[in-house]
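Review form for a predicted model. The reviewer records the input and the model, then writes brief findings.
Reviewer: anonymous (R2)
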Amino acid sequence: MKKFILILCSVLLSAHTASADQADLTKIENYLNNLKSLKAGFVQMASNGGTAEGVLYITKPSKIRMEYTAPEPLLIVGNGDYVIYHDKELDQITNIDYKDIPATMILTQKIKFDGKNLKVTDLYKDSGQTSITVEMPKNQAVKPITLTFDNNPFRLKQWKVIDQQNIEVTISLFDMETDTDLSADLFKFDKNDHKSSSKTKRK
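Model under review:
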């Protein structure tokens, strides 16, 4: 009888955990799907010791702009068709397909962790934050992305990816503003645009 009770408790606990996990996944899906626009300062840290700061702009679907603060000579603009990576110092422009960048998952209009297009490989939650690691089974060339959210209030805090050189890159957000009107001009690439609004200071 004691063994039976232990087995029953184990089954009930597993069912409760699965239910809690699904609730967390649904919460993340709803948050990302309801997010229309975002502006935030960011700090970028790489596992090779590199650091940078700047300002991030997002308008869904598929529009992104990352302005790096000097002396970092980088500008990244996603106009909906492709992502432009501009190294101002080298005067070099590279066009990147959205499907080759895991972070563009955040930009899609409808996110669903269905196990086919987006597969959750890890989910962690404590009193302060929730983290989820997602991979794209249909595109094995793209490394998994880990999204971290503050729990109260629930909002995107950070994402972490592995780049093509196997360097872990973490983007942490601060001073976030959501669902505000952002100028369409932000997502139009201008090679001669050397202005930067990346003077946002962390509080």
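Findings: The chain has one domain: 21-175.
Further findings: Confidence is low (pLDDT under 50) at residues 4-19, 194-203.
Recommendation: see findings above.
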